[in-house]
Design a protein that fits this description.
Layout (H helix, E strand, L loop, with lengths): L2 E5 L4 H12 L3 E6 L18 E5 L5 H10 L2 E4 L6 H6 L1 H22 L3 E6 L27 H21 L3 E6 L2 E2 L10 H10 L4 E4 L5 E3 L1 E2 H12 L8 E4 L4 E3 H12 L5 E4 L1 H4 L15 H7 L7 H17 L3 H6 L1
Parallel strand pairs: 1-2, 1-4, 2-3, 4-5, 5-6, 6-11, 7-10, 8-13
Antiparallel strand pairs: 9-12
Helix pairs in contact: 1-7, 2-4, 4-5, 6-8, 6-11
The structure holds nicotinamide-adenine-dinucleotide.
Nicotinamide-adenine-dinucleotide binds next to helix 1, strand 2, helix 4 and strand 5.
Length: 333
Amino acid sequence: MAKHLITGGAGFIGSHLAEHLLQQGEHVSVIDNLSTGQFSNIAHLEKDGRFRCFIDDVHNDKLTEELIREADFIYHLAATVGVRMIIERPTETIINNIMGTEIVLRNACRYRKPLVITSTSEVYGKSQQPTFREDDDRIMGPTSKSRWGYAESKAIDEFLALAYFSEKHLPVTIVRLFNTVGPRQTGRYGMVVPTFVRQALLNEPISVFGDGTQSRCFGHVLDVVPNFVKLVRLPEAYGSVFNVGSQEEITMKSLAERIVKMTGSKSTIRLIPYAQAYPPGFEDMERRMPDLTNLRTVTGYTPKYSLEQILNDVIGDIRKQLESKDPFVLSNS
Ligand SMILES: NC(=O)c1ccc[n+]([C@@H]2O[C@H](COP(=O)([O-])OP(=O)(O)OC[C@H]3O[C@@H](n4cnc5c(N)ncnc54)[C@H](O)[C@@H]3O)[C@@H](O)[C@H]2O)c1
């Protein structure tokens, strides 16, 4: 059985990836500094003898090197994630994302280990294409708007990974994730689905930013993670970028309405102008839908989960958290 290393493995997506690999009989090591991840995401895996967890930072170059040397395959997910974090903590986000990736790529290159790097649909910026293809031009806002710093830090990660591939033949593949949701995702950092579901279950007003006509496509984490495992073993995928996500589109206002209906909530929907939600000059994208042709061609990808099923899973998960008497779980949801 192969040995897999997941950086950021105590996070939302990383913990599902760890579970998926263990279910396949593989060995999994995780390194996570618990900055946004939670030990409770992986606590249930600790009893499995094929699972190891290191609470540490990928910036610990020596440990990261050792873990990479021991592994057969690597998935780099450790990052400071999302638009709210880049606005609140821009320095930390940019340094963490770029330097962390540099350390992982350099060590993977030293030991010639195949790896997947997680990027984001944010790298398409303000582009208004009906669907985004991996080789489309990117349209970014000015550097004075810190919001774009997250996208740019991930774009630098992509440039660096592709440079390692072309110059040093590192077997690296980039996945550009569109909105990924599912159980264990926290609303603490502004992720929209868990935030709306939590507000609905508590019968609080649901805060929709802007006029609510902006739309997104949400992919189930259980549809997303198997792609990483297929791609890391596919030599024809090395040196390429793949969109990963769903094409089922919904506006934020409709999403809020649907969640209210599904939860039987008494919540009202409150439109909050961007100027109130974010610092002045905040820019958002109207739509964001992936073109999935490349991924379908190499992995045969077809999402299994509809938006209805995704929302059902998230509602079930957050309902359980709210019913839990554990104050730690409650304060972290
Ligand atoms: N969830 C999404 O919709 C989405 C969309 C696009 C891209 N992504 C990317 O997917 C990856 C995983 O995101 P997620 O949604 O699971 O977020 P997450 O915050 O749950 O996971 C990130 C994990 O990395 C850890 N981490 C951060 N910096 C670290 C460091 N220096 N050393 C060790 N651990 C560190 C955090 O503690 C956390 O557990 C990220 O790279 C993110 O940019 C996610």
